[in-house]
Amino acid sequence: MKKTTLLHNPTAGDNDFSKKELVRLIKKEGFECAYSSVKEEGWDTFENDTDFLIVAGGDGTVRRAAKALMKRKRLDKQYPLALLPHGTANNIATALQIEGHLKEIIPHWHHYHLKPFDIGRVHGIGEDLFFLEAFGYGIFPRLMKVMSKIEGDIGDTAEEKLKAARAVLLEIVQSYEARPCTIVADGVEHSGNYIMVEIMNIRSIGPNLVLAGEADPGDGMLDVVMVSEESRSKFESFLLSRINDEDKEFSFSTIRARKVKIFWDGKDGHIDDERLKIEAPVEVEIEIQPDMLQFVVTEGLNP
């Protein structure tokens, strides 16, 4: 019998996502299940005989679990992560093709394989930081700032919140001042005036917007996506298509690299879903660190 530990964000859901219901469904499938709320002290202490950790929540909860694992010594036991996505965007779960109802996901854990997952390491902004999704400048951190102020007025469902965020982002794109930026990707320099530069580890960020369609979080590469002043109208069209649920294809200027240096003449920065306090422009170096995490994926959910 596989032994699991459930890492639960109790504020992320409703009755279907309560501690009682989650534990019931997991045990019903024959898994042992210890419980920890990520809101309580000591949640990141795991039993050594645990087979894998179950992360129940959104992208922020996944990042929190990953941060706890990153603090462990390399000689300590490393635990795979199984996801029960229940956030607004669930970009990490989407990158791993994990979707569906809990009752559909949990039974597949009897037959799984492990998917390596890289992280991006960021140097130059205080302490070294890491990201699972993306590090970037420009319109996305500005979106985070605006959304934090209107959070209570944008609907209750994930669909309503995503649509509202896309609409707000469109307004930002229409007025955001393009900033000078120099990017050196694996030794090759690119520069210009941009409204957005994102160094991405997965396909989508923010309100489920796919910006790097070929990105694979386990391929040892970063995808640098740039939207210049000249591409502003194209990005507006992209957002309008997503707001209207249209399935038009768009692609943006993208560079693939293992190591990136970036100098952005501005202060709007983010790492995953957290805004960064950048008091003055600074050169930042980002490098990919392969296979730092492992996620439980299954054939049934990953055609």
TrEMBL record:
Q: Which residues form the DAGKc domain?
A: 1-126
Question: What keywords sit in the KW lines?
Answer: ATP-binding, Kinase, Nucleotide-binding, Transferase
Domain of life, per UniProt, equals Bacteria
Please give the Gene Ontology molecular function terms for this protein. ATP binding; kinase activity
InterPro entries listed in its UniProt record: ATP-NAD_kinase_N, Diacylglycerol_kinase_cat_dom, Lipid_Phosphate_FormReg, NAD/diacylglycerol_kinase_sf, YegS/DAGK_C
Q: Which PANTHER family match?
A: SPHINGOSINE KINASE (PTHR12358), SPHINGOSINE KINASE RELATED PROTEIN (PTHR12358:SF54)
Q: What is this protein called?
A: Diacylglycerol kinase family enzyme
Organism of origin is Dyadobacter jiangsuensis
Q: What is the lineage of its organism?
A: Bacteria, Pseudomonadati, Bacteroidota, Cytophagia, Cytophagales
